[in-house]
Specification:
The complex is a heterodimer. By secondary structure, chain A is α+β, with helices and mostly antiparallel strands. Helices cover about 55% and strands about 15% of the residues of chain A. Chain A contains 5 helices and 2 strands, in the order αααββαα. The longest helix of chain A has 25 residues, at about 85-110. The radius of gyration of chain A is 18 Å and the shape is globular. Chain B folds into 2 domains: about 5-75, no CATH class; about 80-235, no CATH class. Chain B contains 9 helices and 2 strands. In chain B, α6 (about 80-110) runs antiparallel to α7 (about 125-155) and α7 (about 125-155) runs antiparallel to α8 (about 160-175). Chain B is elongated, with a radius of gyration of 26 Å. The chains are: A alpha+beta, B mainly alpha. At the A-B interface, α2, α3 and β2 of A face α2 and α4 of B.
Chain lengths: ~120, ~240
């Protein structure tokens, strides 16, 4: 029997999605990424800022990101940018999340099933 | 580095994090913490308040540790496959070192003692140096491998079970190995060198092989014991 696809944890993949989306525009270092997430989500998504690094390292290990050390204003930082594999991953994650968000939105606003019950 | 980050490092290493991944994580966290502190100071906080606020924003130690520990890909091989790191790898290393030592012995026999029935003869000059260097390599290899095991175990804060098993294995292999060489063992007469593992004749106390293994084991753990002793003394001072 084929395994059924499930969504065991609604937050799974969210940090990856946000990071890939941000880094597609320009390369950034960790602090910049966290700042950008906070400002663009109006601080709705707030986590311990340090937990972004294992996500970045995991994405880099998977080949979705690449990093380079760069010195700016006499401070050496690790900048991350998206690879072609990362762009594919971003597209997949975006599609999955758009579908999931649409499904939840339909549930919350009544949707087809709610109308059928009336 | 801030004290909480030192605690985090210990916690990650004890949880099996690979040292290089832990080091990189902590470097980036320290940079991030400095940025947060500067931001808080720009907002008008005192140095101490800025430090506290920055640490809170960075995340709790539990969250920071969990985020790393959950990613199994960042665990060291000593934790993911200890049987390989402390069983197979040292075994192959010692086998390789023995092979090299036997080759050096065979080549020395061929170069310096072409007519002799055995390479285990008294030599002078460069030939003596050549054979003694080979002997030092042969007897030193298990001890160096043992030191390597000890270094990895101490660096990664490992529990003692697997490293001890690896040390005992290497000590037994090194202690019970015996080299045999004979010109007449094979019909071609080019010289034949072999290695076998036996306990050998019994001394008054123990078989010679076990005694040798005990000596190797002692030499392997000696640096670690000295290090622990120095650490204990520096803590009590």
């Amino acid at each position: 029997m084929a395994a059924r696809e499930t969504n065991p944890n609604f937050m799974n993949g969210v940090p990856e999605l946000l990071i890939l989306r941000l880094l597609r525009q320009k390369e950034m270092y960790g602090y910049e990424i966290v700042e950008a997430i906070r400002s663009r989500t109006d601080a709705v998504i707030a986590v311990g800022e340090g937990v972004v690094y294992p996500v970045l390292h995991g994405l880099e290990r998977d080949g979705a990101l690449k990093s380079r050390r760069k010195t700016v204003n006499s401070r050496s930082r690790i900048y991350y940018s998206v690879t072609p594999a990362g762009s594919h991953r971003l597209a997949d994650l975006s599609e999955a999340w758009t579908n999931l968000a649409a499904a939840i939105q339909r549930m919350l606003t009544g949707g087809d099933h709610g109308e059928a019950i009336k | 580095m801030a004290r909480p980050l030192n605690e985090l490092r210990e916690r990650l290493l004890r949880a099996g994090g690979a040292p290089r991944h832990v080091r990189r994580y902590l470097t980036e966290l320290a940079d991030h913490l400095a940025d947060l502190r500067a931001e808080e100071e720009r907002a008008g906080r005192s140095r101490a308040d800025a430090e506290s606020a920055a640490l809170i924003r960075l995340g709790g130690m539990d969250d920071l540790a969990e985020a790393m520990i959950q990613q199994r890909q960042f665990q060291s091989w000593s934790v993911r496959a200890p049987w390989a790191m402390f069983g197979l790898v040292p075994l192959f290393l010692l086998a390789g070192a023995d092979l090299v030592a036997l080759f050096i012995l065979w080549s020395g026999w061929k170069m310096f003692l072409p007519g002799a029935d055995t390479p285990f003869l008294r030599n002078d000059g460069f030939a003596n140096l050549y054979f003694q260097a080979d002997r030092a390599f042969y007897y030193g290899a298990p001890i160096f491998i043992g030191w390597g095991i000890g270094l990895i175990a101490a660096r990664q804060r490992l529990k003692t079970v697997w490293p001890t098993a690896g040390l005992v294995l290497i000590a037994l292999m090194g202690g019970t190995a015996h080299v045999h060489a004979s010109r007449t063992a094979v019909p071609s007469g080019i010289g034949h060198i072999s290695l076998d593992f036996t306990l050998g004749p019994t001394d008054p106390l123990l078989p010679y092989g076990l005694l040798h293994a005990l000596v190797i084991l002692t030499l392997m753990v000696l640096p670690y014991l000295i290090w622990r002793l120095q650490k204990a003394l520096s803590l009590s001072a």
